[in-house]
User: Fold this.
Amino acid sequence: MNPSQKAPPRVAVLGLHLEANGFAPPTTMADFTAQCLERGAAISGLARAETSGLPAEFPGFYRHMDSTGPWQPVPILVASAPPGGPIDQAVFQGFLDEIRTGLAAALPLDAVYIGSHGASSAVADEDSDGTLLAMVRAIVGPAVPIVVSHDLHCNVSEALVAACTALVVYRTNPHVDMAARAAESAALIREALAGETFARAFIRLPLTPPSVTLLTAEGPYADLIRDAEALMARDPRIANASVAGGFTFSDLPKCGITITVTARGADERAAREAALTLARRGWGERHRHTRRLLSLAEAAELALRAASGAHAPIIYSDAGDNPGGGGRGNTPYLLRTLHEAGVQGAVLGNFIDPALAAEAHALGEGAEFTAVFNRVEDQFGKTFTARARVLVLRNGEGIGRRGTMAGRQFSLGPSALLELQGSGLRVVVGSLRRQCHEPRMLEMHGIDIAAARVVVVKSRGHFRAGFDEFFSPDRVFEVDTAGLTSPILTNFPWKRLPRPTFPLDENAEWREPGWN
Assistant:
């Protein structure tokens, strides 16, 4: 290298992906190893591969950095688990120790990119994301840029904002902009490396809405996102304006809609003015965060009409049991309702039952047997029994083709398609807890979605980006079912959620920050 040339910047890359539901069983090391746990150089190889199981942020980050100049990635650790309970404390501590050791060995560093979900917690640490950021900042020092990207369902803490240079939050729900937000993070790192300075402003609202009101096609949250994008477009001082919807089921004091604005030129006044503009609209329109769900009886009635041809084909969200929010994927309420109502030819995916999937594999395709769904009951997952036939057996491995999973590898574990006698209802039974938000999860079992008149998915909202080629928004319905992700927030015994908070508490009040 010519002595006058600067060495390519050394950028550490790491991330911790977990959406922690405070009412679900703890997340263990097995949950991470079953989904994604990568270290060191393997991360760079996977990020640059045609397909991989990495969170989509990392390929997006690498693509932008590779296209904008030389750099030297220093990948440390990427750990991702399906949404579940808080991380087992020993597992979280092990990740922290591994990241600490890796970063210390890699010094000096020019920048750090952290691609995390942002709604994690650990059994003994309510702010695991903030703890991680504070540790990274302590290791790399105050001058090294640290840019973080988060899911829009993140729970942002003051500690995290204080430790990072910039926070970039998804702007689409269903999430189809992970790579784009990672590229935005990479661009901010490039700016910082070129000498740009930043200031941040942060506001948390006492507003913890159900996740079904946080879609970005339309509604109160969509309007806030559009306002944030407009601010960035018209004011070059605003490097990023992130409106995070939060994840109420974490049941933590840091829950709630948050606004984090990053301004160029260390312009704190511009950041504060933008944050206040967004916060005032968000709070002023808090009453828009309501949504009516179908009852089970209404769902059965509409499904009968759709199955008979009296109504257009429909898709139901089994909203109370979304594995994508920590649900177990094993509640039978909607399954039982449609079967007992005699709804002909409906399709449901994915019912999570490793024992039932294993039994189907042992019996073989074509076998008829008494299928016991969820033979080991838990709080919401009750036993349901029906005569069934094994139609299709698969290993559960696939590559997504649309929406949030496009081009990404997924695994359901050993899976089976069962057909219930009497109703003809077909059920995809999986072994691993995965929400059904990708059409391939059904199609790989031989299901022609376009020919189905009633489809049920155990997914809250991400299925909308995968199934929209089959079902227009007016044919999508959310059903009020019991489970760990019920949008009816009064169903939960909240312990740590900040109170009062809207909509749980009509008397909730927000006081604007006393900025000069």
